[in-house]
């Protein structure tokens, strides 16, 4: 048997991998990992949201990257035709619940039609062997149940963001069943992760970036819904799942099409207040204050059942809640202590340590 990290490296070395949303939080970590493994990455995205983001601070820009909006099918098609990727990871999205209330139409255009455009390019480009389409745990019709949601549970969403992710899942299923059932066509699957955290995320309306902004500015951390629970998950955990799923789609084909959950264990589900307090504890100083509830709907309880990924992919989570919060906060603390200098080597060190953990704890 071989450790998961070594298996992934053997598979992705030398592959041409196109990543939409490569300037975003998860996309940047995926680029860093794929390049470390020896893959050639082709990034397709809008410019990064902050000069402090992982993409900028780890200096991940490349001549192979393209500035492209996934809402522009003609532009996206030309990227696929020019670069001829082997594997596609689709992460480009409008991923903020609060921003979706401000711009619901733009959110649906990006998350639903953007996914349709990527799939149209995937089915039209003969070089593509597999595509992993990243959606969200919020694609499920959330009834605040205590048990985790399974892949065949009902899709839906009260808020525009959640509904857009449910819509993306329907589009993915439709393309797969309509155009990608025959042997010789690309193998496509969707991946749903939990409340993903880690260094380099500077998005608005997100708890960890909000906590760090407050700590850097020596202001109290303001919490909208401190009693709400979240399934805290270190960013490299679901990325390992996405990479493993991409490998299986290429090696074993149609049997791995469909939807897959990559959520943390139940013990990682903690309140927002506990998550914020963990950040304060690792940072070494800071305070928390409660705000009135937000005027828009946010789920209080949401977690995934990842039994399918554990059973059929061999994937499992290896970082507990305290490790997740420590790794995340330490990244930002190091960035702040070094006055926002390059985070490339520090990020690589976190990645190397995670790979060692994967090789020890997850064997294929």
Short description:
The protein is an alpha/beta fold and 364 residues long. A 7-stranded parallel beta sheet has the order 3-2-1-4-5-6-10, sandwiched between helices. The protein has a 3-stranded mixed beta sheet with strand order 7-9-11. It is 45% helix and 14% strand.
Report on this structure.
By secondary structure, the chain is an alpha/beta fold. Helix content is 45%, strand content 14%. The protein has 13 helices and twelve strands. The strands form three sheets. It has a seven-stranded parallel β-sheet, sandwiched between helices. Helix 4 (73-83) runs parallel beside helix 6 and helix 6 (104-124) packs parallel to helix 7.
Kindly list the characteristics that best describe this protein.
364 residues; alpha/beta; 7-stranded parallel β-sheet; 14% strand; 3-stranded mixed β-sheet
């Amino acid at each position: 048997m071989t450790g998961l990290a070594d298996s992934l490296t053997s598979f992705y070395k030398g592959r041409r991998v196109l990543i939409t949303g490569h300037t975003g939080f998860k996309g940047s970590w995926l680029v860093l990992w794929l390049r470390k493994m020896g893959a050639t990455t082709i990034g397709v995205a809008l410019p990064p949201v902050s000069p402090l983001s992982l993409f900028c601070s780890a200096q991940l820009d490349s001549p192979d990257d393209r500035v492209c909006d996934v809402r522009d099918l003609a532009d996206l098609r030309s990227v696929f035709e020019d670069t001829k990727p082997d594997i596609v990871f689709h992460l480009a999205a409008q991923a903020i619940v609060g921003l979706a209330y401000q711009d619901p139409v733009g959110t649906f255009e990006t998350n639903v039609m953007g996914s349709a455009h990527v799939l149209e390019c995937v089915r039209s480009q003969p070089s593509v062997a597999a595509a992993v389409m990243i959606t969200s745990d919020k694609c499920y019709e959330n009834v605040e149940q205590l048990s985790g949601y399974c892949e065949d549970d009902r899709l839906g969403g009260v808020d525009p963001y959640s509904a857009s992710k449910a819509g993306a899942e329907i589009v993915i299923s439709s393309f797969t069943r309509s155009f990608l059932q025959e042997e010789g066509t690309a193998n496509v699957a969707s991946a749903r992760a939990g409340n993903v955290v880690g260094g380099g995320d500077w998005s608005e309306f997100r708890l960890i970036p909000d906590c760090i902004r407050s700590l850097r500015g020596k202001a109290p951390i303001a919490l909208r819904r401190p009693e709400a629970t979240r399934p805290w998950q270190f960013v490299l955990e679901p990325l390992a799942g996405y990479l493993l799923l991409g490998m299986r789609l290429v090696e074993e084909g149609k049997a791995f099409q469909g939807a897959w959950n990559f959520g943390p264990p139940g013990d990682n589900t903690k309140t927002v207040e506990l998550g914020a307090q963990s950040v304060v504890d690792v940072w070494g100083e800071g305070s928390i204050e409660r705000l009135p509830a937000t005027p828009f709907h946010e789920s209080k309880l949401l977690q995934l059942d990842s039994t399918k990924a554990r059973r059929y992919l061999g994937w499992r989570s290896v970082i507990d809640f305290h490790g997740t919060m420590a790794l995340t906060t330490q990244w930002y603390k190091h960035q702040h202590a070094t006055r926002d200098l390059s985070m490339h080597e520090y990020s690589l060190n976190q990645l190397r340590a995670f790979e060692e953990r994967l090789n020890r704890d997850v064997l294929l």
